[in-house]
Amino acid sequence: MRNFLTVKKVVGWTAVEIEPDGLYGVTVLEPKESGGKPVVVKCGFIPGGLIDVVSLTALSKIISVPGCPWTLLLGRKAYHFFVVPEPTVQASELEQSVRWSVGNMIDYPINEASMAIMRIPSSQQLPNRQTHLYVAVARKEMIQTYNAVFQRAGINLQAIDVRETAQRNIAALAETAGKGLGLLSIGNHGVQFIITCNGSLYLDRFIEESLHATSSNDPEFKLRVCERIVQQVQRSLDFVSRTLTFIEIDRVLLAPTRGESDSIDSITRELSLPVEKLDIASIVDISKIPELTRQENQADYFSALGAALRFTTSSEQLNLESIQARSGLTALKVEMAVMGLVALTLLGIWGIKQREVVSERSIEKNSAMQLREAKTKLQNSFKKSDSDIETEIAALKAQSDIAQKILAMTENLGSPQGYAQHFSLLAGLSREGVWLNSISIDKGGKAVRLSGRTMEKESVLRYSRKLNDTFAPQGVQFTALELTSEFVARPGERKPRLAAVNFNLY
Fold first, then answer.
1. CA 45/CA 301 separation, integer angstroms
2. Integer Cα distance of 259 and 299 in angstroms
3. How many CB atoms lie within 10 A of CB 403?
4. Which of 289, 405, 412, 417 shows the greatest Cβ crowding within 10 Å of its Cβ?
5. What's the chain's average pLDDT?
6. Is the entire prediction scored with pTM above 0.70?
């Protein structure tokens, strides 16, 4: 008799990637024997670039393999990918704490977001440093829509992934044991560069520079694009070298790409580390798919292949679908109860503050009325002496001054509108080379303090100028800057190197 409690072993994954020109799908199975390469058994393409039942059904007929669950790789603009400090809370409170952290970084309510978390493993090597998390965030409505489409198509969708971890899965197979690896992927819409070590993702950077732009026939334009790409990649390498000193990067791999070979060669020549071209056949078995021997086809299926390799590394995998699936009715009720208590508390505090403001305004109004009455009496009275008149005026003026001060203090408690506009301005402000760790808003929104880290002091100066220009309409000005340098001594070096610069702007 069959044991229905036995979980069937996953032998591989089928991945589908959404691109503007269509859907790219790949199925990869586990190696046939220990130490062997994963085997690509199916690949296929459906034009159109839309996830619907018709397209998925057609693709499934080409690439589906019994026993293989599916993972969907989101388009780059369909999600956010953040690095945030890991909060010091209980494991059961981590997800909710992170939600509060990233709520100010997105342009829609956090309760409308699906979220997945992955740690950046550095606590053992750098025990005195703040640990960080990768957080992927996408609209919950979009995730639910994709789930519904796959369900109607009769396809077993078990994961929704992002491009950073898909590329990480490929890098993990190509690493030299104990060494860090850079993987550079130059695509139609930008450049993605990651650094991994021991199968874990330590740095990702997406550079919105295209070598395939319409004006790329201009040699000077292509040269400037290449220079900017080289600068960003080299900065990433230098950042890891200075801050994650336990990672020794031995080389950079160049992912398969289409065309622009001259420009790509000029980029790789300028980097400080050796650059090698990645041949997909060196890390996976493509003998069943002859078309993947061509570099342009490897480039087309590169991201989908990485998503299908999610079973090949022991590192954490992201899944935007799983948290959504776990958030059942009980969790929803708990979240609603917590949010209700918070809302009631905030409403209570706001009501108290409003009553205080009304009371102080009443005091001020009464004092002003008394002062006017006193002046009228003084003008019509000739019985009181000058000294009596001056004493009465001074006493009333003191009461009025006290009421004015109390009213000014209550105005600094905040406003009914909150600080949504402040966070929206910060989220939309470009901060290349600057990482924010904390944001503090005081005095009714007129005082803002930012703390963060940077690699170059000049980046903070540029950022402060942008801040003042952006926040001027809000009546906020940043007039003070504090900088604290961090130095790290590497083995064999006499002088410590500059690792990072901490800053406070207020």
1. 9
2. 10
3. 19
4. 289
5. 80
6. no
